[in-house]
């Protein structure tokens, strides 16, 4: 087993703290990665605080991982020691179901998430990227473009693919008017990607102070969603709306903005349900309300390559891992511009070694 150090939430209410655990020895098809950077997704916070009611403690969050390969198994062909590598939200799937066969592993009924998922290899739960190393099946390791800033690439592994996939699924492109709701980690990627796909992009935000950033990232217009009169001006206008909001809110306010046959796709996953919606807003214009979950491995690689080609990365604030609890509070206040990324160099291995209980006062 491989000694590993990280940060874990010990309970739903306690702050994240230093945690020592073990990774499996790499098997023939595994890649052993030293983690350099890990993005901080709102899903990490939902999970650390058991907001989705499925957390097994202790939980080591983190599914926006960029690192360097230190060791590969004998059957690994696509990676070798020294390569850059990325890991996103999944680390395994059955490989044979119709979803896997289509490259849509995220819909495989038995997929394994990067953290808080039963781990078929160890019989325990998976532990994520707020840690110094990870061992992952080569089928779930991504090639990271060398030309982009590595820390700013990390959030592409979740925020990037979660927005890229629905924008592609609904064929967003030139001639389309696309709304993005919320300028957080996911939203600021959606604005950049929809702009790169050639759509007219309108950002809906509750934070007037984000207007200039939104325009710089590629929004053609910015609407302050708290203002009903301003919202009403945009009725029946949108081909597609991508809703990234992490809290329950009034969906009708956005459904009314769709054209006939327009679609609003929800990717935000709040703790509590949204208020009930008005069905006539769907019926009268044959509008659709949809959802989307991250993206498959093939599409994630396509997204990374697209971002490399177009120079798209996340706007990040690099933090030491010791600041993770403060970062969660700032994320809740919509203060992150626009993704926290943990610099794993801030996670020193304890001098006393693994056998000795890791004492947080040492770090
Ligand atoms: P985030 O960085 O916190 O961004 C969420 C944004 O939503 C905020 O920046 C804010 O933007 C807006 N917002 C927050 N509270 C709001 C409220 N009460 N009313 C209206 N707007 C509000 O979070 P994230 O990391 O982008 O994640 C967003 C959501 O997507 C989370 O629920 C996360 O779990 C989920 N997620 C889903 C998937 C998937 O596969 N479907 C993948 C990853 C994440 P403004 O300040 O601009 O209003
Ligand atoms: Zn995520």
Automatic annotation (TrEMBL):
The lineage of its organism: Bacteria, Pseudomonadati, Pseudomonadota, Gammaproteobacteria, Candidatus Competibacteraceae. It comes from the Bacteria. The keyword rRNA-binding does not apply. Residues 14-342 form the Enoyl reductase (ER) domain. The gene is yahK. PANTHER family: ALDEHYDE REDUCTASE (PTHR42683). It holds the Pfam family ADH_N. This is Oxidoreductase, Zn-dependent and NAD(P)-binding. Belongs to the zinc-containing alcohol dehydrogenase family. The keyword Zinc applies. Its cofactor is Zn(2+). It comes from Candidatus Contendobacter odensis Run_B_J11. Keywords: Metal-binding, Oxidoreductase, Zinc.
């Amino acid at each position: 087993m491989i000694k590993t150090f990280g940060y874990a939430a010990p309970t739903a209410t306690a702050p994240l703290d230093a945690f020592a655990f073990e990774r499996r020895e790499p098997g023939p098809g595994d890649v052993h990665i030293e983690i350099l950077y890990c993005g901080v997704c709102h899903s990490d916070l939902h999970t650390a605080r058991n907001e989705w009611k499925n957390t097994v403690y202790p939980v080591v969050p983190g599914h926006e991982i960029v690192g360097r390969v230190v060791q590969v198994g004998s059957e690994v062909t696509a990676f070798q020691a020294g390569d850059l590598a990325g890991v996103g939200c999944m680390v395994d799937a059955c490989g044979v179901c119709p979803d896997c066969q289509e490259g849509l592993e995220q819909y495989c009924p038995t997929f394994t998430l990067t953290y808080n998922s039963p781990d078929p290899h160890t019989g325990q739960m998976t532990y994520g990227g707020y840690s110094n190393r990870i061992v992952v099946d080569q089928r779930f390791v991504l090639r990271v473009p060398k030309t982009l800033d590595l820390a700013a690439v990390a959030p592409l592994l979740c925020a990037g693919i979660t927005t890229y996939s629905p924008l592609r699924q609904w064929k967003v492109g030139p001639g389309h008017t696309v709304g993005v709701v919320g300028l957080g980690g996911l939203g600021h990627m959606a604005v950049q990607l929809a702009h790169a796909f050639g759509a007219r992009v309108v950002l809906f935000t509750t934070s007037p102070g984000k207007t200039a950033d939104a325009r710089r990232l590629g929004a053609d217009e910015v609407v302050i969603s708290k203002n009903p009169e301003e919202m009403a001006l945009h009725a029946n206008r949108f081909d597609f709306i991508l809703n990234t909001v992490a809290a329950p809110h009034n969906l009708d306010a956005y459904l009314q903005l769709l054209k006939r046959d327009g679609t609003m796709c929800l990717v935000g996953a709040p703790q509590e349900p949204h208020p009930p919606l008005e069905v006539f807003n769907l019926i009268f214009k044959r509008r659709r309300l949809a959802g989307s979950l991250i993206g498959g491995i093939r599409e994630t690689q396509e997204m990374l390559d697209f971002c490399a080609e177009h120079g798209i990365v996340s706007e990040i604030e690099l933090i030491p891992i010791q600041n993770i609890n403060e970062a969660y509070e700032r994320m809740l206040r919509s203060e992150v511009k626009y993704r926290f990324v943990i610099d794993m160099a801030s996670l020193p291995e304890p001098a006393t070694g693994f056998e000795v209980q890791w004492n947080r006062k040492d770090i």
